[in-house]
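Key result, reporting period 2: structure in, sequence out.
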């Protein structure tokens, strides 16, 4: 068939990780994202097996953004036979080598630790050499001009907020246009601007991570943050805040910076995440990606993600200073769902104590430690043992990298032209069903295919 539009979800069909969508436009094939499966008991095995039988027949690969659940298996591509271009935004191309090398080191460390402990090691999916190889295939696509992969295949990248460099991919040929959203940012996702209207398309694949959530009207994030800091100051507490290296970490740094510039951060702030410590300054290198508020600061010579109280810790050795920390202080540490990374160490130390305090900012995935903490439990399980929870827990919903249901719908409705059929991916069963119902009520034809199932337009 040379005149058809078809998609197949090769991942993230009814779940929020392992994003991977095969788009066929006429006789051309494009893979959008090749993400890591996370959070499932069978994730290690699921990640070893690539989701497509053949990769050498792809005309292009597009990466929407640099989160692990979208980019985490890209270094497996060369070995699997794909040697073509990997199209992404310049900012994502800038960050990707750092993020993938950090992932390779983490996999090796986890395998070594398991071996030392006498456990079967988790699989190492790729090494540093394979990261270098795949990074040679990266092609930065600036602006919103189409990139011509072939005479009958173009790829255009459109901003969607979410994190630095994130894009939706418009894949176009004589048969029509398919838009794959990647993750769609929250309208208040500063330091980035809200997602602009998407371009017209004949078929849309869109995420629905928060498709069953309607955010209540939010109090000003700076006021909420300042309130938590003030309480920690009174109680001389160390606040422990799980963050993601890309996204939530920068949102928190940006708002904390604004609070600091008003004199509301009178305590040390430690950023205990090697990747976040390096990606944060990259925002200033891509001013075109930033919100007006962040660009105004840059124009005055101020790095929007820096402030005098902040110490960025770029290694485990540097992070040893936290050992002697006394309240009041704030520690931002990866990883965001508290399933691994430096945050675990900080939680083990401070959760059993009233001298500790936990700040949960944004989405806490059910089934993870962060999801358990969000329910204010008497204890949580960390590194195989139960840890009592005495530290007070604050939740700030105002920090989210993902649009809620009304914002997702508004993004789709802002697309010019007739309503396209919509395929929902990247959402657990309940949000996906809720958002499908919501869109159907608004007159859309909605598909929720299973893994590998084709949808044609
Ligand atoms: Zn993402």
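The corresponding designed sequence is given below.
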């Amino acid at each position: 068939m040379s005149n058809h539009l078809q998609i197949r979800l090769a991942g993230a069909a009814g779940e929020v990780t392992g994003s991977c969508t095969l788009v066929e436009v006429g006789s051309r094939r494009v893979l959008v994202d090749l993400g890591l499966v996370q959070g499932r008991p069978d994730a290690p095995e699921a990640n070893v097996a690539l989701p497509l039988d053949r990769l050498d027949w792809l005309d292009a690969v597009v990466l929407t953004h640099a989160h692990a659940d979208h980019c985490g298996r890209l270094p497996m591509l060369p070995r699997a036979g794909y040697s073509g271009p990997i199209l992404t935004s310049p900012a994502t191309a800038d960050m990707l080598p750092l993020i993938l090398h950090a992932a390779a080191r983490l996999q090796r460390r986890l395998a070594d630790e398991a071996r030392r402990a006498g456990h079967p090691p988790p699989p190492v999916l790729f090494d540093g050499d394979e990261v270098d190889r795949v990074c040679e295939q990266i092609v930065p696509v600036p602006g919103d001009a189409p990139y011509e992969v072939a005479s009958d295949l173009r790829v255009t990248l459109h901003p969607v907020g979410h994190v630095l460099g994130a894009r939706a991919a418009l894949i176009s040929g004589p048969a029509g246009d398919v838009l794959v959203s990647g993750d769609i940012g929250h309208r208040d996702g500063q330091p980035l601007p809200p997602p602009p209207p998407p371009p017209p398309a004949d078929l849309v694949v869109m995420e629905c991570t928060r498709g069953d959530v309607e955010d209540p009207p939010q109090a000003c994030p700076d006021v909420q943050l300042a309130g938590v800091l003030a309480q920690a100051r009174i109680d001389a507490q160390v606040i422990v805040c799980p963050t993601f290296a890309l996204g939530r970490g920068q949102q928190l740094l940006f708002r904390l910076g604004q609070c600091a510039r008003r004199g509301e951060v009178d305590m040390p702030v430690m950023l205990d995440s090697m990747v976040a410590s390096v990606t944060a300054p990259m925002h200033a290198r891509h001013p075109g990606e930033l919100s007006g508020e962040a660009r105004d600061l840059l124009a005055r010579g101020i790095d929007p993600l820096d402030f005098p109280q902040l110490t960025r810790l770029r290694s485990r050795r540097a992070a040893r200073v936290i050992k002697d920390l006394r309240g009041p202080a704030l520690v931002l540490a990866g990883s965001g769902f508290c399933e691994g990374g430096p945050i675990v160490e900080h939680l083990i130390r401070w959760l059993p104590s009233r001298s500790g305090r936990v700040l949960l900012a944004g989405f806490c995935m059910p089934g993870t430690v962060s999801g358990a903490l969000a329910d204010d439990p008497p204890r949580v399980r960390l590194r195989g043992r139960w840890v009592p929870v005495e530290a007070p827990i604050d939740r700030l919903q105002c920090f989210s990298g993902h649009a809620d249901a009304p914002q997702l719908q508004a993004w789709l409705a802002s697309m010019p032209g007739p309503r396209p059929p919509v395929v929902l991916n990247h959402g657990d069963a309940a949000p996906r069903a809720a958002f499908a119902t919501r869109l159907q009520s608004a007159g859309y034809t909605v598909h929720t295919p299973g893994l590998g199932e084709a949808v044609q337009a």
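The mean pLDDT is 93. Residues 65, 67, 162-163, 183 surround zinc ion (CB under 6 Å). This case is discussed further under Risks and Mitigation.
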